[in-house]
Fold each of these.
Amino acid sequence: PGDGFPAPWQVWNGAFRDDARRYLRGDEVAPSLLTRRFASSPAAVDFVTCHDGFTLLDLVSYGEKHNAENGEASRDGSSFNLSSNHGVEGESGDSAIRELRDRQVRNALTLLLLSHGTPMLLAGDELGRTQRGNNNAWCQDNALSWIDWQATGGQGDIVRRLIALRREIARLSFAEWSEIAPFQLAGTTHSGSRPALLLTRDDAGGRILLVALNPGLTAARFPLPRAAAGAPWRLAFDSFAEGVPGVSAPGEWPQFAAETSEIEVQPRSIRILLG
């Protein structure tokens, strides 16, 4: 289209997709680059998965495509997926692997729904839809590509909570992000290629949002600035926690006392605090 699409057309942000996937599987992603992706333009359509490629559950369950059923000896479909099976290719009965995959799905949804761009969610990802590793299922007019709207056990509640949080923080400026290095406490180690980082933003009214990301394999500790006017920090989201507080009762969300000097973020998880 020459110089670009006319308004109100928007452009898919493939760079967000690729770097979010790299971050999720533990590749080295420069903090400044991740910051730029997170604070992208509202004119960009940010996404992690789309109709072409792995579903979100398959993205964290398969290390390579499995397209034999398409009849082209798996030559079809992209081999550049930036995915990880987290230990076992395909479905697993290992509770630890299943929990890690669920957490990685929550992490992906968090990055997507709190980015500054316009988020695009692939239908069925909130339901835990799988195509059994098939990343080119356009020719499969059957249960492999259909959406089971009665499916249970997905991340629908998480999606709703993150959308509500997105609306709550919409008035805060995404323009000013800063990086704060994590503490290196005794007994706490970090992978050198996967640094934990802390992103903050602040609006004119002094409200602060902390997004603490730890893609490493061990827990990380971060310095926690004093909240405005000595008010406590409110935990708005924790991708590691099994039971995230419901958005309908914000008064019940956990809080950190104003004098708290640090927070701990569990491995491969994201914590979001409002101050």
Note: The chain is about 20% helix and 15% strand.
Amino acid sequence: MMRADKKAANKRAVTSTPTDLIQVLIRELTDAASAVRTATHRIDGYGLAANSNYLEKCQVDTPPEIVKRVWEIVRKYRTKSKNVFDAGAGDGRFSVGGVYDQYIGYELDSKRIPIAPLPENATILRACAFAQALPKAFDLAIGNPPYVRHHDLSDTWRERISKWIKEQTGVTPNGWSNAYLYFLWLALITTKNDGLVAYLVPFDWVTRPAARTLREFIANNEWQLDIYRFDTEPFPGVLTTACIVIVDKQKKRKSIQYYRLPDNGDAVRIDNPTLSSNPPLEYVRKDADVYAQRGFSSGDQTVFLLTESQRLHHGLEIGEDVVAAVSSLREVSLENSNLTEAFFKRNFVDAGESCWLVRPTDTPSKSLMSYLNDVGGRCKNNSTCSKRAVWWKYELPVAPRILYASGFRGPRPKLMLNTIGAIAVGSVCGIYTPTAVKASHVLKSLLATELQTKVVALSRGFTKIEVNQMNGLLRSIIA
């Protein structure tokens, strides 16, 4: 691009064409009274603009052909939109391909240079979309909002944004929401009573508990909700299946309609998000007798989980300083369904897996204390460790009778009877039963159950069963 063209594109990133809405927004950004506004009117995203880690996680550009596909779907609902809203606009690529009077994109990352040429009726503002949002101001909200896990969102940002959303809707978002769900709330707030939302988000939001309040909010308003799942993943490097979410406030419907989006051709209506005749497994709270529980979170697995060579190097004793643990079943070939001493030694100890979990006590051995002093610096910024009275001191969990991997490919997760009493850690979850006989019965039933068609796949055949989905399945087994 010529130097003059670059200057013109950058100018359009911070100025506007003379429409009433743009002028209002520019005044919002430059108002001399901004210093005395409430905290929700900051333009730095509560520090996100200075958080390079957050901004790096956000920047996954949408392929041009997918942008085109989103606009094709939008035209099925609206032939033209007056004012278009794009939060987390990146380089403004959603400004291309649509029919509208005015496009306004918000982008905090100053490193993102607008596409060339940016349409004359398009503007990108260097501001926080939440801080400058005007409720019910836009006819269409479109885009690919940032996907950032809730762990990476600051408490300050989450609390203030949640408070603002409740002020606007009367509903408080789930505290475990990932960033894109907050942006979906924002889109619903900023669109008019007859507006349209077209967002590219992970498909699993259709069943995730963290999105339940959002789904219920849409259902309670009886807005039409259509979800288009891509047959071919548009983001090859991202472990998630994408979909286009359409919320049409102009039309009333209580139920959700699902569609498949083939690479070529029109969308195909499907009955269930599992792509089968089975609805997704329900999320059920655990039973007091037989239940599943997620793997133990020690705080930092690189510190609290050791390989056999690390254990020997630091002189840590099995049973006194460390105990057997399983944090992954990915490389394990289950020739049998029992985690015996011999199986554990061959597939974990001798294979160099991190399979020894630190066993904290009130009086740790000299060797263990020496090890903890050596590695303690690696935990200084870990939130789990920092919340403990003593950063390394946790209560060792009870070993489950059955171990299973939460993520899987194929008909079901890998499952094993936990004969040696290893601790389930991380993505390896546990099933607890009162007796070994009951555990054998549960395992036999699970090994005979096809789960792949009862759970929404994350990506490319990779499926994850959530703990409370497993609890629902267990309840049906023992009923």
Note: The chain has a mean pLDDT of 85.
Amino acid sequence: MPIVCLFTACSPSLPDDVRSAMETLPDKIDFNLHVKPILSDRCFSCHGPDSNKRKAGLRLDQAESAYAELTEHPGYFAVKPGKTGHSQLVSRILTEDPELMMPPPASDLVLSSAEKAILIRWIKQGAVYKPLWSLIPPERPKLPEVSHKTWPKNGIDYFILQKNELQSRQQAEEADKETLLRRVSLDLTGLPPTLEEIDAFLADTDPNAYEKAVDRLLASPHFGERMATDWMDLARFADTHGYTVDRYRDMSPWRDWVIRSFNENMPYDRFVTWQLAGDLLPDPTRDQIL
């Protein structure tokens, strides 16, 4: 297949739909948050880590490969950091030629205008790759600039408001106290508040009444039960063997340990280590073996 170079300028002329989508994007494009999901879903099947399925010798899951000169087309590059007009990725996602466009029509994969805009802005901003998010030490981000500066009550509100403003959304009115208590009770314990808890919350005029309600719910044994539910679903918890001979098996000790771990706020790294390989630790305890 011949190489395509649709654009020779530093910045290609964008279709109207992609240009409009650009206006809705965040100022800074993040590889893990915005770019990798697109590449993984639309590109890695042909340009990813599987050498048996890789096309044109191009890998887009690694920076050094994406930046390298194309093996089948010397002098051209799939991704040229900071130079969208010299990046074949940009040419291929914008062309309407079915012989050249990426993803190819035969794949039944399509990029939306917003996804094209994300990839183009990412390249324009330097096409920075990042390691897996869990391997990056967390850093406290700067609070984003927002127009409605009196609305946020905490740091998280700034990020919510920024997203709403980018998408021209209006904030909903704050819910009444009874609704707030019902929401947080169901979220943290899986149970609705009792009438006594509702009456006590409505009568509490302390500005920190909501925070106190949250602390009470976190201290409830039902908090661990609620948190353990998702974990046990993922671990396929069951009290019977299933399949052909569906005999009973008592898994309650493990279930109780998971609930207790959440209620005791066990550090996540320890929780996962014990779950995956607790029996391989030096002189493992009964709980670690469990």
Note: The radius of gyration is 26 Å.
